[in-house]
Amino acid sequence: MILKFFDRLEEWLIVFLMGAATLLIFAAVAHRYASGVPVLQEYLLQLDMSWAQELCIYMFVWMAKFGAAYGVRTGIHVGVDVLINRFDDRLRGGFVVFGLLAGALFTGIVGTMGARFVWQIAHTDQVSPDLEAPMWLVYLAIPCGSYLMCFRFLQVAWNFMRTGKLPHHDIAHVEGVDEGAAHDLHPLSHEARQ
Length: 194
Description:
The protein is mainly alpha-helical. Helices cover 70% and strands 0% of the residues. The chain has one domain. The protein is built from 8 helices and no strands.
């Protein structure tokens, strides 16, 4: 129950950050070009949008950190397993568990180092250039995203040790679409080729 809540929260956070950053970039670009129109110049030049680029960068950093954790959970994170998949199941399983635990260790170390950095910078008066937001808030993405990614590596490792299965992303699957109906509509389906 609580894991499903965190799964949905993670997904909604990524979607919100991506959508909000896209809208903000669009608004900033539209503002910049519309400011050149003489009729609108008087009004638009009073509106300062210089902070938009900085906020978008921070939003994309947060989105990337949470997106990486999402990638581990769903099996879309990049992995090179061509050689490992040729091993027998027992040896392959050992390498998979080692790789997942190594990923958890690495992201746990990055999260801890990031948390120490955030703690140190929180005791300064450093702020971002345009937004003047506390920099510790900006850098908080590192420990939050890294610890979440560490948790996801451990979660996948635990599920793999119990079931022997890794999460696998099916690129042909669209959530909310019935697989039978999607198969019938696909131009390369068996029926369509005949």
